[in-house]
Amino acid sequence: MEPVINFVLWVPSPNHRPFKIRRTDGTFDSDGSFIRPQWGSVVIYNPDEKSMSSDGVPRLGVTELARPMQIFRHHLLSLLGLVDNLETPEQRALALDAIVRRRIVENSLEAINSMQVIVKLVDDQTNMRVSMEVQNQVKGALASLKSAQEELMKAEGSLWMAALHADESKTLSSTAFFSPTMLSLLYFPDEHKYAIYTPLFGPVLVPLVIALIKELKSRRKKKSLKEKEE
Q: What is the pTM of this model?
């Protein structure tokens, strides 16, 4: 699943208005909002009497949402690792390129890690069968990873194309790793084999063992009688 940034605008019930967030130093947060890293942010909106409709439901028009949207904009930049004081388009473009490059590295490393785990599983599990679908997905992930690398090495390569190739490589490798055809054979140790085959061979082995014990006792008895006669 691709990462998602969540933005929640929470309107407290009339009994809990105004709802404010108290800081650790005892003061109240002026914006009434907070950020949860790698998830998103929450903005608390306490409507005033002017923004209430006749049935008691707050109106959320352009005017009412202007301030929350400004806060969400600031939160979005913070979640993406961008500062909010980038003035020129060149500065914003460089900051955006840095984010894209970092995302390319993250997706590429994740794809490589998934494929390394698949190779290790196949080497360790001798009874694991790799379907043609999984093989094609791994080959596609390798091809996309190579395309991303080649795009970055070009003199006039497209950073966005490299990002798309890296994302495709991560998706294919993850799909191959979590394929039902592989997960069904991922963990099948010898103990499971014994538990399955023992009930089948048990009825056959028990009479053989009893017959072997009787044969050994008979031979010992014959040997003992022979020694006494001598």
A: 0.58
Number of domains in the chain: 3
pLDDT at 212: 86
Q: Which residue has the tokens 């991560």?
A: 170
Distance CA(163)–CA(159), nearest Å, equals 6
Measured in degrees and rounded to the nearest 5, phi and psi for residue 17 equal -105, 145
Give yes or no: residues 72 and 32 share one domain.
yes
At 1-47, the pLDDT tens digits run: 567 899 999 988 888 888 888 888 878 887 788 999 889 999 998 88
The residue out of 79, 108, 123 marking a domain boundary is 79
Length of the chain: 230
- φ, ψ dihedrals at 9, nearest 5°: -105, 110
Give the span between the Cα atoms of 22 and 43, in whole angstroms.
14
In a domain, 138, yes or no: yes
- SS3 category, 31: coil
Report long-range pairs for 118-126 (Cβ below 8 Å, ≥24 apart).
Answer: 118/173, 118/176, 118/177, 118/182, 121/182, 121/186, 125/185, 125/186, 125/188
For 53-101, write each residue's pLDDT tens digit: 666 677 788 888 888 999 998 898 888 877 666 667 787 788 888 888 9
- Crossing angle of helices 132-153 and 89-124, rounded to 10°: 150
What's the rounded Cα separation, in Å, for the pair 117 and 72?
A: 39
| Owning domain of residue 26 | 6-79
Question: Do 55 and 116 reside in the same domain of the chain?
Answer: no
